[in-house]
Automatic annotation (TrEMBL), chain B:
<dbReference type="InterPro" id="IPR013792">
    <property type="entry name" value="RNA3'P_cycl/enolpyr_Trfase_a/b"/>
</dbReference>
<dbReference type="InterPro" id="IPR013791">
    <property type="entry name" value="RNA3'-term_phos_cycl_insert"/>
</dbReference>
<comment type="similarity">
    <text>Belongs to the RNA 3'-terminal cyclase family. Type 2 subfamily.</text>
</comment>
<protein>
    <submittedName>
        <fullName>Rna 3'-terminal phosphate cyclase-like protein</fullName>
    </submittedName>
</protein>
<dbReference type="InterPro" id="IPR023797">
    <property type="entry name" value="RNA3'_phos_cyclase_dom"/>
</dbReference>
<dbReference type="InterPro" id="IPR020719">
    <property type="entry name" value="RNA3'_term_phos_cycl-like_CS"/>
</dbReference>
<dbReference type="InterPro" id="IPR036553">
    <property type="entry name" value="RPTC_insert"/>
</dbReference>
<dbReference type="Pfam" id="PF05189">
    <property type="entry name" value="RTC_insert"/>
</dbReference>
<dbReference type="GO" id="GO:0005730">
    <property type="term" value="C:nucleolus"/>
</dbReference>
<feature type="domain" description="RNA 3'-terminal phosphate cyclase insert">
    <location>
        <begin position="185"/>
        <end position="299"/>
    </location>
</feature>
<keyword id="KW-0539">Nucleus</keyword>
<keyword id="KW-0690">Ribosome biogenesis</keyword>
<feature type="domain" description="RNA 3'-terminal phosphate cyclase">
    <location>
        <begin position="8"/>
        <end position="351"/>
    </location>
</feature>
<dbReference type="InterPro" id="IPR016443">
    <property type="entry name" value="RNA3'_term_phos_cyc_type_2"/>
</dbReference>
<dbReference type="GO" id="GO:0000479">
    <property type="term" value="P:endonucleolytic cleavage of tricistronic rRNA transcript (SSU-rRNA, 5.8S rRNA, LSU-rRNA)"/>
</dbReference>
<dbReference type="InterPro" id="IPR037136">
    <property type="entry name" value="RNA3'_phos_cyclase_dom_sf"/>
</dbReference>
<dbReference type="Pfam" id="PF01137">
    <property type="entry name" value="RTC"/>
</dbReference>
Amino acid sequence: WKEFLSERTRERQNVNLMQLVYGETESKSTTKAGLQQRGTENDDSDTEFFVPKGEGTKKPEEPVNDDNIDAEDCSKFVNFASQSDWKSQESIESIRSRFVSKGWSKAARGGGSRDVD
Amino acid sequence: MGKVSYMKLKGSQNLRLRLLLATLSSKSIVIEDIRSEATWPGLRPHEVSFLRLLEKICDDCVVEINETGTKLKYKPGIIMGGRHLVHDCGVSRSIGYFLEPLIVLGMFGKKPLTIRLKGITNDSKDPSIDTFRSTTLPILKQFGVPAEGLDLKIESRGVAPKGGGEVLLSVPMVPNSLKAIKWVDEGLVKRIRGVSFSTRVSVQFENTMIHAARGILNPLLSDVHIFTDHKAGAQAGMSPGYGISLVAETTSGCVISADTTVSYARGEDDADLEDDRKDLIPAEEVGEQIASALLGEIKQGGVVDSTHQGLLFLLCALCPKDVSEVRVGKLSPYGIEALRHIRDFLDVKFVMKPDASTGTVTMMCLGSGFQNLSRKVS
């Protein structure tokens, strides 16, 4: 029955994602990005004095609905860069499986002896 | 002329996507409330420039803008294509902004398109010219776009604020339609390539960036080659700057990219802030940042990076009536917007199957049966 349950959860997740994208409600990530853009905008301008309509300071909790219709038209999404420190051994190991040189690069570095330090 | 029914839209968001889809699906649109409440209302120079570009490559399209620029009426015409066209993209957005929709339009023209674009070749907001060459064009080839005639040549580079770059784009037309694909295997990263550039500054900036980027990438992969492209004189545009574009190639032929550029900020015309010149990010930090961004993209999984999701979905939707299946990482905001607009204009809905173990999403859709209509008319 566990399998059955997990199967059903997966089904539901599936529907949820489609609802997020196609449903009337704004999807989470869009809202988040909208807020981020808003955030950077606000950093630049002196919003303490002038609060133009629709550009005002918004609390991150507040849902942005239809008022980000003027969101910037930009396909680039720079969000991953700051997520983890790619110098730390942990994060390097977490991504190593995505590279072909998994085996031999370790060997080349002396059987992974440098992994220790 | 009979009455035209317009599709009503609001706001300046996704203007390129809307105009592109309107043109492809021959639907007239009217967009209201374009920054109607902003300090500087109406269309921005780059948006107007994009409309002019549409007029250039299409026959019989009608663009009407009201006095304040807050309302736009667009009736699409026939995509003509043509040779020896020239367009000045201005300096408010980079050439990448124009290229993204232009390559798709070019494929469905009556004739192959060859156009010279002038402006900013590299900036941090849009995909750079180098990314287009290394990543975007190979993605098109996956869909059966003929490789001959698909080219992007960098004649000179230019960065913000003054630009001065020039590129030559040629897009072949798709004879009939694209080819539906099943593209779900992202493979393993086998090599990383890249191009760094510098204009009007010392080549030392490039070496520092490359060194820093390699510092992050080499522990994972030894096959990392980043080429330098130092420009001087007339080829270097009018402003100093430097940048780097990295691309990871996988065993299954996927290309995943990340790029950035550092230059002085342009005099923002839409913001009321004074020209405070921030210090430029040091080259070493740029190299590390971009290598990290690339690893972040690789970690996401999927057959394309987050920047190209929108393009990928669009191409899938423009396929013949056949099932396409692609796998992407976490949906990017632009990708989601693209999905919504594709539904509105082309009536194509994707089925999404999230894969919890890898964090990727498998997207399936039935193509809209789109054909190169412009060509048929002749």
